[in-house]
Design brief:
Layout (H helix, E strand, L loop, with lengths): L2 H6 L9 E5 L8 H5 L3 E5 L2 H7 L4 E7 L10 H11 L3 E4 L9 H8 L3 E5 L11 E5 L1 H8 L17 H16 L2 H20 L4 E6 L9 E6 L8 H10 L7 E2 L4 E4 L10
Parallel strand pairs: 1-2, 1-3, 3-4, 4-5
Antiparallel strand pairs: 5-6, 7-8, 8-10, 9-10
Amino acid sequence: MDSEIAAQLPDTTGLKHEVIIQEGHNIGYTHALLNVGAKIVTVKTKKEMEKAINKNTAMLWFLNANTDNGEIKYDEFIAIGKKHNIPTFIDCAADVPPVENLFKFTKMGFDLVAFSGGKGIRGPQSAGLLLGRRDLIKAARIHTPPRGSTIGRGMKVNKEEVLGMLVALEMYLAKDHQKEWELWENQIKLISDSALSVKGVQTEIHVPPYANHVPSLRIKWDSNLVKISPEDARKKLMEGHPAIATVGDKETIGITTWMMDPVRKE
């Protein structure tokens, strides 16, 4: 809550500045930690995490999308933070839906939880939600506009986006989530059935356990029967009109529909 210290960042001289994360959670997005002057310390085990904690440790950071890539799970992670009185932060950017996740992680005991404002909430892409301990939220606000001397000035969310985020959240919470889920399932099944009408094609309907937890489709085929590679098929879909963006690898094409709106005839 010290505005002079807030203005000092990203210079962390004299400040706690180390953030401990699991090695399997250290992806490109952790650069956001470096942007504010933090030093990232990676560990693999609970024992290593406890050993890495020292007088300079400012936070323990968890990436929900990579939960299965780390040995330390939610309960142990939170317990270590509470034991050493160090705030725990979980990045849940792509973890709505399900709607329950908006409340799940704070109830679990994480001190801070971040969600993307776009994606499932369908709000402004440059906005988001930071939930958790009131004192830490108040401290975070010290780094935001209208202050011109803080790290957050160059990443400000404008007033229109703040209101847009609020309205998007209200609309999201008021949705019939079961009905929406059934719509996605039907859409995916329709695409799957259409793809299966082509000889040599196989499909798999699945729901990722973390991040983008929605009905999804994985398509693959016998290249002896279907004379096109997944890369070329993906390119043709993207270059078509309308453009269709897909994911996947050298052997498959992945499709989801949860960002689409059904065509409504008046």
